[in-house]
């Protein structure tokens, strides 16, 4: 992903998908681009555009739980940081990284293999003029059970470290909330 950051021109918007991610519908990229254009024409251009995603069972192709960071709307940095503290995280596969985000933070931090996106989102929350727009668009379907799901111990260590860097001694609260949210999402989907 850092290669994508380094090769992008200053005005580019970036979207990072893995080989196990695919567009939720043929028009979603055009719809996301239209949202960006609309926001820019209204003078409220976001630094991040956060959409929704949905996990899918790779074997059966059936859709499973959805990812929702925050309801549709524009978040200032205080609301964005509060959402992160409460354990909510934008899925990087459903987030478009704008020029403003990349001017503030030009790459993922070294040392992360599984949670660099979380660390990036947390580090962005330190910039007081950051603008995040959340839209009600299911952008991506993601195969459940990727590499981060197979290396649980390393992922937990990296997540804990990212929260500690962002929130100091209170790192345990967003860490706990992150996984309580995941359990609640799984329970809600299984009903």
Tell me the layout of helices and strands.
Elements: H1 2-7, E1 21-23, H2 28-41, E2 48-56, E3 63-67, E4 73-75, H3 77-85, E5 95-97, H4 99-104, H5 116-124, E6 132-143, H6 147-150, H7 152-167, H8 172-190
Parallel strand pairs: 2-6
Antiparallel strand pairs: 1-6, 2-3, 2-5, 4-6
The helix content, as a percent range, equals 40-55%
What is the strand content?
A: 15-25%
Counting helices, strands and paired strands, the structural category is alpha+beta
Mean pLDDT: 92
Computed CA radius of gyration, to the nearest angstrom: 16 Å
Report, as a whole number of angstroms, the end-to-end distance.
36 Å
Order of helices and strands: HEHEEEHEHHEHHH
- Major β-sheet, in short? 6 strands, mixed
Write down how many β-strands occur, each being a DSSP E stretch of 2 or more residues.
6
Point out poorly predicted stretches. none
Tally of helical runs: 8
Task: Categorize the overall geometry.
Answer: globular
């Amino acid at each position: 992903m850092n290669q994508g950051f380094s090769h992008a021109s200053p005005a580019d918007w970036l979207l990072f998908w893995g080989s196990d991610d695919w567009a939720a519908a043929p028009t979603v990229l055009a719809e996301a681009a239209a949202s960006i254009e609309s926001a820019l024409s209204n003078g409220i251009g976001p630094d991040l555009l956060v959409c929704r995603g949905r996990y899918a069972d790779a074997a059966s192709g059936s859709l499973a739980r959805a990812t929702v960071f925050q309801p549709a709307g524009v978040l200032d940095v205080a609301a964005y940081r509060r959402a992160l503290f409460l354990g909510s995280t934008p899925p990087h596969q459903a987030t478009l990284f704008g020029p403003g985000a990349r001017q503030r933070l030009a790459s993922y931090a070294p040392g992360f293999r599984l949670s660099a996106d979380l660390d990036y989102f947390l580090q962005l929350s330190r910039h007081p003029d950051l603008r995040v727009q959340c839209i009600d668009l299911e952008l991506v379907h993601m195969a459940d059970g990727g590499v981060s799901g197979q290396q649980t111990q390393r992922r937990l260590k990296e997540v804990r470290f990212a929260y500690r860097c962002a929130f100091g001694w209170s790192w345990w609260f967003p860490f706990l909330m992150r996984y309580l949210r995941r359990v609640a999402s799984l329970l809600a989907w299984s009903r």
